[in-house]
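Deliverable D5.2: sample structural annotation.
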Amino acid sequence: MSERFTVRVGAAGADSAPDLWGLFIEDLNDALDGGLNAESVRNGDFEFDESDREGWNALTGWSVVGEVEVRREDPVHANNAHHVRVTGPAVLANEGWDGVGVAEGGRYRLACFVRAQGEPVRIEAEVGEGLARAAFVADPGGWQRVEVDFTAVATGRGELRLAVPAGAVVDLDCVSVRPIGSDGEPLTFRPDLLQALQDLKPSFIRFPGGCVAHGLGLENLYHWKRTIGPRHEREQIRNLWGYHQSRQIGYMEYFELCEATGATPIPIVAAGVCCQNTPGGGAPIPESEMDAYVQDVLDLVEFANGDTETPWGARRAELGHPEPFGLRYLGVGNEDQITDAFRDRYARIEDALVAAHPEIAVIGTSGPQPAGPDYEAGWAYVRERGTPIVDEHGYQIPRWFHQNIDRYQAYDPAEAKVYIGEYAARSNKIRSALAEAAYMIGLERRPEVVRLASYAPLLARMGHTQWEPDLIYFTADEVRPSASYFVQRGFAEERGERVHAVELEGVQAVPVALPRAGTALLRSRGATVAFTDVVLDGNRMPEVVTGPEGEGVLLGPIDPAAAELSFTAERRDGEEGFVVRLGPEAPQSFLELQIGAWQNKSTSVTRSDDGIGENDHGPLPWRGVRTGEPLKIRVKLDGPRVRVWVDDELRHDYEQDLRPEQRVVAGALSRAGERGTEYVVRLVNATDTARTAAIELPEAGPVAASMTLMSGAGPDAGVPGEASPATLVDVTAKGDDGIDLDLPPWSFATGVIRTGG
């Protein structure tokens, strides 16, 4: 039986935010090399290194039959320091990314730098077992770039094998295989992934991060000038997510991607400091180098927008793009701590940008959480500076999103506008996607404050993920969009010009309450910890020892609304900290106190609902758990209030959010249509109940609806790496003075209602 409710669309209010929905691209989860980058050869430059990942070296991705020597003498370029010398008979084989793939009839370009020692040498190339073949000649003398096009005779995947004949000695570097596009040139972007991004119709693209922008250490900062020009001349660096960055997709390709998707660029540059998670903290760029760095930022704007008479506009034209890219935004910093060093460096960068390029909107930063010390300090500094836009981030559980649909109603529109640069409801479940949809309706309602938003992360290669959830998963041959992807696409495909007030009648918010019963449990992972002087609700408990495998030790029952636990903890071995769980087991709601969270650098209190957990308070920076040093811990739950003392210091003191969840949500915008006003309508039903939405519009007369409905899967369907379990169905309907739309349980509908018959 369907429950009927009314969606009453009111008068138009503010103009909608025209750039609201965009994309976030960071080289995370092998998103670029092995992903969006159309290059088929893995480590074709022989630049992988032990510093990238333990066990890696210049021949990672290659296998050798015969004599092959890694060399550094007389390289192709100083930024491409390694090459190989192959003495025949020998075969050098590259595994590609789960193989080098070709399609029957497809054309490909094999390119590399070569030089022969002595006589010219013919090198035979083959993909798989005869899927495709080519040959080229290496001449003696200096390095020569050779290119050869070939056509695949069958479809499949296999190694790229380069065979050097007996008696020949050849140097090789920068080996590449790319598909050839319809214009006869090798492709920059993998076509199916590019199409998936184009289908999102992004207003903007953020790049290169995220954490990649400000790097793990000053030597790891992302300097844009080192990522343009011939690929073999670009500086390759260690990726802070634990692999190698070739930077074959650098700033020029980024701007070209923006053009290919119709998006405006939002580059993010480091604010003169590296990431605060760097060992030793977020070091600032040395004073002697700061003026040059500020100039680099100004040069980036000139590279994007300058005419061809300017030095960097001329460089852009030299690289094949005389027309400006139309840069309008530039972000300075990413989740930085607001230290004195940050303040000094940021101010110099922003002041220079405002003076030289007042047409560019500068975006500041407010930390990794939507609340807490970094958030407060970031906003205070933005207010002090008068920065026009501030970047907020927030990865939260679905419940948080349903509770915060009206979050930005409380923001002052006279202050900085908001860019929600990274957000996601933890997990790839349907309930997470619908929570995001409900939240996005809230963002759309407040264009006076919220101007930009981008889900993160965007791309993840199966078997190579460092972060979950992600919007689009992919393998060598497949693109697997998540349910969240189709939510994002639904908002971006149909947009309105004016935001309308919406009143719901016949729905109730879902109450949130503390659990009635639960237990206290201690556990550690990656460490052995002894717990002594354990007192639970006034009862002394025996000593407890937890092991590194993460198994828990149950202390006893508690009332999650009135409990107190104290103990002394001492780590005996290992590198990590320990966890106190308070409450019932998943999927019910519980809290976890993490002592030594995030690489043993912080304390935090996390909350889990429906089997999905995320920080509820913190993380707060801390010295970490140390082997052989006792810690006194006390935790007190008093109704919604949570307090945690570490060595008698009150580190956490907050109240759990018990506001009800808005699980049935509607939003509406309008735009001018060919026959009258068109209403863009969004509807979320994140409940177990089927519902019928009776939509009432501000004007009378016949109407026709064209909607897309995402439904057909339960709230806990959907896992990382698999395509969305929900189905998409096009729905049409007609009515007079309004329209009825059926919403199955756990569904999302978006589309257009046209007036005028």
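Annotation notes: The mean pLDDT is 97. Residues 287-305 form the longest helix (19 residues).
The annotation will be released with the project's public dataset once the embargo ends.
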